Amino acid sequence: MTWHGVTTDPRLHIVTGKGGTGKTTVAASLATALAQEGQRVLLVETEERQGISQVLDVAPLGTQEEEVAAGLDGGQVWGLSIEAGAALVEYLRLFYRLGRAGDLLHKMGAIEFATTIAPGVRDVLIGGKIYESVRRTTAGRAPGRRSRSEDPPAYDAVVLDAPPTGRVGRFLDVTGQLADLARVGPIRHQADAIHQLLHSDTTLVHLVTLLEQLPVQETLDAVESLTSEGLQVGALIVNQARDAGVRASLDLVAEQAPDPARLAEQLESVGIRTSAAMISGLEQTAAEAVQRRDLEASLEDAVVAAGRPVLVLPHLPEGVGPDAVRRLAAELAAQGVASA
Amino acid sequence: MPDLDLGAVLADPATSVVVCCGSGGVGKTTTAAALALHAAEQGRRVVVLTIDPARRLAQALGLTELDNTPRPVVGVDTSAGGSLDAMMLDMKRTFDEVVLTHAEPETAQQILDNPVYQAVSSSFAGTQEYMAMERLGQLRAQAQAEDSWDLIVVDTPPSRSALDFLDAPQRLGSFLDGRFIRLVSAPARAGGRVGARALGVGMSLAASTLGKLLGKQFLLDVSTFVAAMDTVFGGFRARADETYRLLQAPGTRFVVVAAPERDALREAGFFVHRLARDRMPLAGLVLNRVAVSRARISADRARDAAESIEESGDPHTAAVLRAHADHAEVAARHRRLIRDTAAAYPKLATVQVPLAGADIADLPALRRVAESLSTP
């Protein structure tokens, strides 16, 4: 099986997960792993959080694409923060030749109005930018040349740091949200095109989880609901997992309950003065560590049972940053993550 | 930092509302449920409003259906004369009920059928916060009218920032009362043509562009919606301001919940400042899920000992020491973070809840949390 579990070549990778599971870091690592020699990968965020610039330690991203990191084997990672208001102004400029009137609309509060109150419009605008970046060809990079479908794509892959699982279903259901509002017109047309892209075999949704009760539950629920909505679920990514050494050590602890007398004698033998409180504290710590290990094991089984490929990323106690992203990218590459 | 005595806060008959705030994922709902259970078992008549409880906690509270109505929780010790009702917020239903209570039947139906209303009431940023406050106001009125509860415990919606709970209703209110939306809906209010002329060139251009983009029908729906809602709320902003003032009323106590993590503590700090600025009564900070080392051996020392013991051939004892070292490292990190917070907020009252091995999904587990919360 491929690392993403489908036989086609995905180009749009949507990364979601429960809030706090490290989606942004995983998305950045995935983009870094996918950017192989000579390739360009676009890493996109949509909620104006500047998460990408924080994780990669670069200046805040604007509405223009810019290079933000080097790929693992020499490719390029570009970054973009999509902002609905700017996307709307750009859209109006393009389709209605509005020119500077866009600024006026901003001043009037019309842009805020359109991107906030009209449900789904915001998502269509953001989706439209994503659609454009997936479909753009290298010819489209050079001004004045019409791009043709046989030209190579501008980006070999696009990785989207998507809204968390709680909101992602609505975000991806661009046409459903619009249903009652815009039945015709350019927005509707664009929504249909995005819908088609999201439901095509070039798009995958990857889910990030921790081995904790709630994130796993949300992940499994999301696998089910995304699948039923006709979206392709890719890999399930277990983030912040214990490394193999710690696991092996815990397996050993679990083999038997510690014998208090022996524990005390061993500690004394290396010069630690023991007390009854210390020994019972150690026994309790051991019991709780085993309990947590068992819980994690059962959660991991549940993740595996979902039937999607599982990728595992280690917990990095020193925190996230560009080095951590590269390290996680290398982990992903070692587990088979590569672009076609 | 002084100790936070939540047991005393809950026992004080002057305390009538407890609001649990904090950034997402820190255990607000669990804290709210534990505080409510404790107060009820100490003899208070309590209702707890939860927003989005984890499935098993919801089951423990008997919240199997989302019907927006408080129901008695089974298994509560009522021997002290107290009681506990629990409910889960249904924001759409709350919104609908507001409309149905305040509008004439015909107008109400018109609003409920409006597609813009349906969008705003079910999926609009800020609606959940707005409706949580609205529901709190309703429960309070009901408690006073029927003398049914003497304490309301509120959980707040999950959001990145704790401040959203305070800001979102007003943000939504001022947006709905905003210039553009007012102007777009002016014709409907002025009864037709008069308003349109007053729009001016810029606004006509803006309105016609949006009309092209979103459809004329949509703008019409917006204008009908705003006009109709005006009669219900008398202005969203005014209504939001009013509910906001409820939070400043005597008897309200804020409990800020944070996990011992840098981001959550920073959020909690912002929130504490904000409460002080708006003169909202803060009870204190709950530090939730704090790892506590159970044996007085430092992580480094335990690792050294594990290495030596392994050489002499007792791998099991070595592994136990390593498990302790891992846990002690987390505990040390939590201690440092809490110490930094204490230095930054020397007057902030705090209480710690230790990290539990399993998740909290039944009343006995909630009682254990409550015990840590109420014993400073």
Can you tell me about this structure?
The complex is a heterodimer of chains A (340) and B (376). Chain A has 15 helices and 8 strands. Chain A has one domain: P-loop containing nucleotide triphosphate hydrolases (Rossmann fold), CATH 3.40.50. By secondary structure, chain A is α/β, with parallel strands linked by helices. In chain A, helix 11 (213-228) links the parallel strand 6 and strand 7. In chain A, strands 3-4-2-5-1-6-7-8 form an 8-stranded mixed sheet, sandwiched between helices. The model of chain A has no long low-confidence stretch (mean pLDDT 88). The longest helix of chain A has 30 residues, at 276-305. In chain A, helix 3 crosses helix 4, helix 6 packs across helix 10 (186-198) and helix 12 (244-254) crosses helix 14. In chain B, strand 6 (252-258), helix 15 and strand 7 form a beta-alpha-beta unit. In chain B, helix 7 packs across helix 14.
Summarize the structure.
The complex is a heterodimer of chains A (340) and B (376). With 340 residues, chain A is of the alpha/beta class.
Summary tags:
heterodimer; A: 340 residues; alpha/beta; Rossmann fold; 8-stranded mixed β-sheet; 15 helices; elongated; B: 376 residues; 18 helices; 8 strands; 59% helix; globular
| Total number of domains of chain A | 1
Order of helices and strands of chain B: HEHEHEEHHHHEHHHHHHHEHEHHEH
pLDDT below 50 for ≥5 consecutive residues: which ranges of chain A? none
The share of residues in helices of chain A is 40-55%
**CATH topology of the largest domain in chain B, which one?**
Rossmann fold
Mean pLDDT of chain A: 88
- What fraction strand of chain B? 5-15%
Question: What count of helical segments of chain B does DSSP give?
Answer: 18
Based on Cα principal axes, name the global outline of chain A.
Answer: elongated
